[in-house]
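Give me C-alpha coordinates for this 66-residue protein.
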Amino acid sequence: MKQRIRDKLDNLADRLQELDRLLATSEAASDMDNYRKLTREHAEITPVVGLYREMCQARDDEATAR
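Here you go.
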Protein backbone atom coordinates (compact mmCIF):
# COMPACT_ATOMS: atom_id res chain seq x y z
CA MET A 1 0.00 0.00 0.00
CA LYS A 2 1.26 3.45 -0.84
CA GLN A 3 2.45 5.56 2.07
CA ARG A 4 0.11 8.41 1.13
CA ILE A 5 -2.94 6.17 1.41
CA ARG A 6 -1.68 4.69 4.68
CA ASP A 7 -1.23 8.22 6.08
CA LYS A 8 -4.79 9.15 5.14
CA LEU A 9 -6.14 5.99 6.77
CA ASP A 10 -4.09 6.69 9.91
CA ASN A 11 -5.57 10.19 9.98
CA LEU A 12 -9.08 8.74 9.68
CA ALA A 13 -8.37 6.38 12.58
CA ASP A 14 -7.17 9.32 14.67
CA ARG A 15 -10.25 11.32 13.71
CA LEU A 16 -12.49 8.44 14.75
CA GLN A 17 -10.90 8.42 18.20
CA GLU A 18 -11.35 12.18 18.41
CA LEU A 19 -15.02 11.85 17.44
CA ASP A 20 -15.49 9.19 20.12
CA ARG A 21 -14.09 11.58 22.72
CA LEU A 22 -16.19 14.50 21.47
CA LEU A 23 -19.41 12.49 21.41
CA ALA A 24 -18.77 11.27 24.96
CA THR A 25 -18.88 14.82 26.34
CA SER A 26 -22.05 16.42 27.59
CA GLU A 27 -21.36 19.51 25.47
CA ALA A 28 -21.81 17.49 22.26
CA ALA A 29 -25.50 16.88 22.96
CA SER A 30 -26.19 20.51 23.84
CA ASP A 31 -25.91 21.63 20.19
CA MET A 32 -28.07 19.26 18.15
CA ASP A 33 -26.83 20.48 14.76
CA ASN A 34 -23.23 19.86 15.76
CA TYR A 35 -24.19 16.53 17.33
CA ARG A 36 -25.83 15.38 14.08
CA LYS A 37 -22.77 16.46 12.12
CA LEU A 38 -20.43 14.55 14.43
CA THR A 39 -22.55 11.39 14.45
CA ARG A 40 -22.86 11.46 10.65
CA GLU A 41 -19.10 11.77 10.26
CA HIS A 42 -18.61 8.99 12.81
CA ALA A 43 -20.97 6.70 10.92
CA GLU A 44 -19.23 7.41 7.61
CA ILE A 45 -15.68 6.67 8.71
CA THR A 46 -16.30 3.79 11.14
CA PRO A 47 -16.53 1.07 8.44
CA VAL A 48 -13.42 2.37 6.65
CA VAL A 49 -11.37 2.46 9.82
CA GLY A 50 -12.66 -0.99 10.80
CA LEU A 51 -11.46 -2.50 7.53
CA TYR A 52 -8.14 -0.71 7.81
CA ARG A 53 -7.61 -2.11 11.31
CA GLU A 54 -8.47 -5.61 10.07
CA MET A 55 -5.95 -5.23 7.26
CA CYS A 56 -3.26 -4.07 9.68
CA GLN A 57 -4.01 -7.00 11.98
CA ALA A 58 -3.80 -9.45 9.08
CA ARG A 59 -0.47 -7.95 8.02
CA ASP A 60 0.84 -8.27 11.60
CA ASP A 61 -0.42 -11.85 11.83
CA GLU A 62 1.33 -12.71 8.58
CA ALA A 63 4.59 -11.22 9.84
CA THR A 64 4.28 -13.19 13.07
CA ALA A 65 3.60 -16.41 11.20
CA ARG A 66 6.74 -15.98 9.12
